[in-house]
């Protein structure tokens, strides 16, 4: 409190008097704020640190001048609050630090950012390099063409317990330098292509080191940083154009030139497997909501042709998205996210290539639609119906092949809706179910239009209505 009082009374304007209060402590940070994590001693410590840092930054809002010798140290300290998603920062700290940097005219300074990377961060990286015997990238940030064949030559298994001091040192380095993750995030926000390219040999190894962390939320922040970097290096990712148009204008970018896309791909795919039951649902959502868009951007910026891109996206749909949907059926928020990802990003980007996944997609979406419990989550039903409509629009030539599967599944939904009409629901669910009914009628009309030339289909529909007159509104619009 004495420090705060001194700053408020303007008795102490020297950076060394208040920078110590902003040094991020070397503790094992609590990333997930669940009931168990809140009982850990370090959780109390990180709360105290954030409260103290917030008080100091609040008192520095009027600070307008510092010595040139202190600018780099101040930038390093305040850059660690640039990301509100890390446990040593918050939205309040993010806003306060940005305001102080702006007042001191230290924000978006290319010269200082470059100096920050080439001096302080590079020195930290040298210590890391001495602890890691093998790396997937070279010192200049290029993918290694060949891993040493004799890396494990002469190595024999040892039967007794072994404790590696090197591993302990590596863990210690990560604890001491975890806050550099935010500094890397700050640099990635600068949107300075020349800065990133000239310091690629520093940025890439540091980012890959954090990707190797076991904690899934650390990986999520790495995804965020990588996304910022890709948007900066490939300006085409900012433009709102479809994937075909993107590849017509695409030029070779730095990620393609350095050949590190495969390394990033290996880092990102495990993030897609952070699912319940091994990962808590809330934590899983935080990771997936960053990992999927980042991987999508990586596939786009690293593919040499539209065909190659579509094949890679199809692989993600089949091996990850659909498998994940099957395992998160009891988690509404994750289901909505995954179907939204299919509807808004993955399927629209591949056009007719959706044929390669169509049978699995139709089956999975009909499973969602047919589940009577989804009536209590109308948004999920609306998303599933919209996705089915999108698939039929992109592959109309195959609609007739799935006509009976689609019709059977949608009739089930119609009957579920008919039963629920007589039950009382909240206004939110009642409005949602009405929208589902409208969307369902539109989808069935679309199927009938696409399948009107299919043999016997019209007669089969008429026979269904004769057997069950309640289907007349649905099938004979």
Automatic annotation (TrEMBL):
InterPro entries: ARM-type_fold, Tti2. GO terms for cellular component: cytosol; nucleus; TTT Hsp90 cochaperone complex. It comes from the Eukaryota. Belongs to the TTI2 family. This is Uncharacterized protein. The lineage of its organism: Eukaryota, Fungi, Dikarya, Ascomycota, Saccharomycotina.
């Amino acid at each position: 409190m004495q420090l705060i009082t001194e700053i408020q009374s303007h008795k102490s304007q020297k950076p060394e008097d208040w920078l110590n209060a902003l040094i991020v402590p070397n503790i094992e940070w609590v990333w997930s704020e669940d009931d168990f994590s809140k009982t850990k001693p370090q959780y109390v410590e990180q709360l105290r640190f954030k409260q103290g840092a917030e008080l100091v930054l609040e008192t520095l809002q009027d600070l307008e001048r510092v010595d040139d010798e202190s600018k780099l140290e101040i930038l390093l300290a305040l850059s660690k609050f640039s990301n509100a998603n890390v446990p040593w920062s918050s939205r309040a700290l993010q806003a306060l630090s940005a305001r102080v940097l702006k007042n001191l005219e230290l924000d978006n300074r290319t010269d200082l950012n470059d100096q920050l990377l080439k001096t302080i961060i590079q020195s930290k990286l040298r210590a890391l390099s001495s602890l890691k015997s093998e790396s997937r990238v070279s010192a200049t940030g290029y993918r290694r063409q060949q891993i040493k064949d004799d890396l494990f030559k002469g190595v024999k298994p040892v039967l007794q317990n072994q404790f590696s001091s090197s591993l302990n040192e590596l863990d210690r380095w990560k604890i001491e330098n975890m806050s550099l993750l935010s500094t890397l995030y700050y640099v990635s926000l600068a949107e300075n292509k020349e800065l990133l390219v000239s310091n690629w040999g520093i940025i890439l190894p540091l980012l890959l080191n954090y990707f190797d962390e076991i904690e899934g939320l650390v990986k999520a922040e790495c995804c965020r940083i990588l996304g910022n970097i890709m948007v900066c290096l490939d300006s085409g990712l900012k433009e709102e154009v479809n994937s075909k148009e993107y590849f017509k204008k695409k030029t070779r970018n730095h990620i393609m030139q350095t050949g590190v896309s495969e390394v990033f791909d290996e880092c990102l795919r495990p993030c897609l497997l952070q699912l319940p039951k091994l990962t808590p649902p809330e934590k899983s959502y935080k990771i997936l909501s960053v990992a999927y868009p980042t991987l999508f951007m990586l596939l786009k910026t690293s593919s040499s042709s539209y065909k190659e891109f579509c094949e890679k996206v199809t692989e993600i749909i089949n091996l990850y998205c659909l498998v994940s949907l099957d395992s998160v059926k009891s988690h509404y928020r994750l289901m909505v996210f995954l179907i939204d990802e299919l509807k808004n990003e993955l399927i629209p980007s591949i056009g007719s290539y959706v044929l390669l996944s169509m049978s699995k997609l139709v089956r999975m979406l009909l499973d969602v639609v047919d589940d009577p419990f989804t009536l209590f989550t109308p948004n999920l039903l609306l998303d599933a119906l919209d996705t089915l409509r999108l698939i039929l629009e992109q592959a109309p030539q195959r609609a007739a092949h799935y006509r009976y599967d689609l019709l059977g599944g949608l009739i089930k939904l119609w009957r579920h809706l008919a039963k629920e009409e007589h039950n009382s629901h909240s206004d939110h669910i009642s409005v949602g179910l009405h929208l589902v009914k409208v969307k369902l009628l539109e989808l069935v009309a679309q199927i009938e239009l696409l399948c009107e030339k299919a043999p016997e289909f019209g007669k089969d529909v008429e026979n269904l209505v004769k057997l069950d007159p309640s289907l007349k509104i649905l099938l004979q619009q």
